[in-house]
């Protein structure tokens, strides 16, 4: 059984966010086996996909697992799956995925970029949860917003880019936060530097201390920063700590388009079968 490791939201190896991609011939094996594979791959997400009969609303069924749990929506592993399908000749043009959060699409352009079409997350202002405040170590927090059910992240606005980059949260304390994760964000220090905002994502409760580039979180970061940057509908986010990647976002009605590149770095065989 062929398995790939793909760096998503990256244009060269060892950048962006790596994801496992396993294409199946038919229906999904038992959940326990899928979870064991994801734990063995031990990346922030491993995607599993199988083809669907023609004539339906989607072409492929898609699921994502962290090393510890299944998630409702994942951007970078969807980008990685679309890259594998397009580069191996298994799909071309618009690819429709049926997932837990509904039908998602991906489209590869001639220049090698892939654009995902995801639902835009809602944002609700909230008070800073006490455990999150303690975990962030007393840094200045400008605002806190909760997001829609599909991602379940907390968006925490910090004072500036330097604070985001230098943050060293208490991951054990963050593990007590019951939702999916915490995204810290700030405006870019240099508006002419090629990106408009920065972010970092921490998901220790789901077995991921820090996710380098969280595509799904940008469905909330896009409207968040659009409201703060003059209503612009096209923005670029830079996410990550030691390992970073760029996500181009476009707000389009109730949808967010996420555009990036991907590169396969490992192509091998999974010897264990369900």
From TrEMBL:
<protein>
    <submittedName>
        <fullName>PhzF family phenazine biosynthesis isomerase</fullName>
    </submittedName>
</protein>
<keyword id="KW-0413">Isomerase</keyword>
<dbReference type="Pfam" id="PF02567">
    <property type="entry name" value="PhzC-PhzF"/>
</dbReference>
<comment type="similarity">
    <text>Belongs to the PhzF family.</text>
</comment>
<dbReference type="InterPro" id="IPR003719">
    <property type="entry name" value="Phenazine_PhzF-like"/>
</dbReference>
<dbReference type="GO" id="GO:0016853">
    <property type="term" value="F:isomerase activity"/>
</dbReference>
